[in-house]
Design a protein that fits this description.
Elements: H1 2-17, E1 28-30, E2 37-41, E3 46-52, E4 59-68, E5 71-79, H2 82-85, H3 90-102, E6 106-115, E7 118-126, E8 131-140, E9 143-152, H4 159-167, E10 169-170
Antiparallel strand pairs: 1-2, 2-10, 3-4, 4-5, 5-9, 6-7, 7-8, 8-9
Length: 173
């Protein structure tokens, strides 16, 4: 899982690095049909899907992204083959996800939390370019859901970042 998570975070950071400023519109609820989560975003997201190579073979990552100047709001999900997590506790799986997100960056904070009454992880990661990556990650069976905010250090406590991250919840498919 670690190579996938690095690719996911690299994709998130690269998105911010090349983002053109977007005009803020009214926040909207994004709830893709049949997927299993909801979140509010500053505007309608751009959707992307790609196969990411991992140690267990390619895994399709589906992302919804809103870019605003030097920030990005990213929510996504992917399904792992059952053998990728077999024999591991949910704590081990979630901690591995955070380790993969950190890569060579600096983990500032990690917390065990719950999202919709399921075990989850919250992480704040500082990168060498002065950006912060804030992640909430939760798994349901073999499906990983993530909400990731990327922006300048210090912006993670701002109203927009908090509104996005705090709205992330699991829902019935």
């Amino acid at each position: 899982m670690r190579p996938f998570m690095r690719a996911f975070v690299v994709l998130a950071v690269a998105t911010v690095s090349f983002a053109a400023p977007a005009l803020a519109q009214e926040w909207i609820e994004y709830k893709p049909a049949g997927v299993g989560y909801r979140v509010v975003m500053p505007e309608a997201p751009k959707l992307t899907a790609q196969d990411v190579p991992t140690a267990v073979g390619p895994i399709k990552a589906t992302l919804a992204i809103v870019e605003r100047a030097n920030t990005a709001f990213i929510v996504g999900h992917n399904d792992y083959p059952p053998q990728a997590i077999a024999g591991r506790s949910m704590d081990e799986v979630l901690d591995g996800i955070v380790q993969g997100q950190v890569g060579r960056n600096r983990l500032r904070e990690k917390q065990s939390i719950t999202i919709s009454e399921r075990p989850a992880r919250f992480a704040i990661i500082d990168d060498a370019q002065g950006q912060v990556i804030v992640s909430r990650a939760v798994m349901v069976e073999t499906r990983l859901f993530q909400a990731i905010y990327v922006g300048p250090k210090g912006s993670e406590t701002g109203e927009d970042a908090q509104r996005f991250l705090n709205s992330f919840a699991l829902v019935d498919r």
